[in-house]
Amino acid sequence: MFSFSWTSIGRVAFIGFLAYIALILLLRMTGKRTLTKLNAFDLVVTVAIGSTLATILLNKNVSLMQGVTALATLIFLQFIFAWSSIRSRFINQLIKSEPKLLFYQGQFFKESMRKERIQQIEIWQAARTKGISSMDEVEAVILETDGSMSLIKKSNNQKNDDTMQNVKGYHPANKE
């Protein structure tokens, strides 16, 4: 644990450099979508890639080729699932959640908040973060697929629901 060896330090630096180059090349080959912050599935894959890279660097029992193969497998699977989710509604629903309406036209959606484990104070915090001093200024609050909250400010424009079309709990017929 407290031993020091230039050989082991050199190994970590050399393997780290090569693994990092391999990771960059693999990510560039699969495109920007591979590591975007879009949903919980993407987060899990990103953490797995980081863990794999750490294992390559620190575990002497894992060769560089084994590690690069593990990285390539994770990135390839992420690419395949992302590609498939665009082409298959079933796969898209399997790996991605849908945005949920938490607040709309002055009313908190308590059941949605309970299911998503969101408290009213968290919605107020999101409003304050956006510089909103009163919920009277807010038309809707949506819990996005990546876990962030989007706030839509009220507008004088009657046609302001374009971005709400895929939000669970939103029904245009309920508008005044």
UniProtKB/TrEMBL annotation:
It is a multi-pass membrane protein. Residues 153-176 are annotated as: Disordered. Residues 18-82 form the YetF-like N-terminal transmembrane domain. InterPro entries: DUF421 (IPR007353), UPF0702_alpha/beta_dom_sf (IPR023090), YetF_N (IPR048454). GO terms for cellular component: plasma membrane. Keywords: Cell membrane, Membrane, Transmembrane, Transmembrane helix. It is found in: Cell membrane. Residues 87-160 form the YetF C-terminal domain. Its main location: membrane. Residues 153-166 have a biased composition (Polar residues). The chain crosses the membrane at residues 6-27, 39-58, 64-86. Belongs to the UPF0702 family. This is DUF421 domain-containing protein. It comes from Sediminibacillus albus.
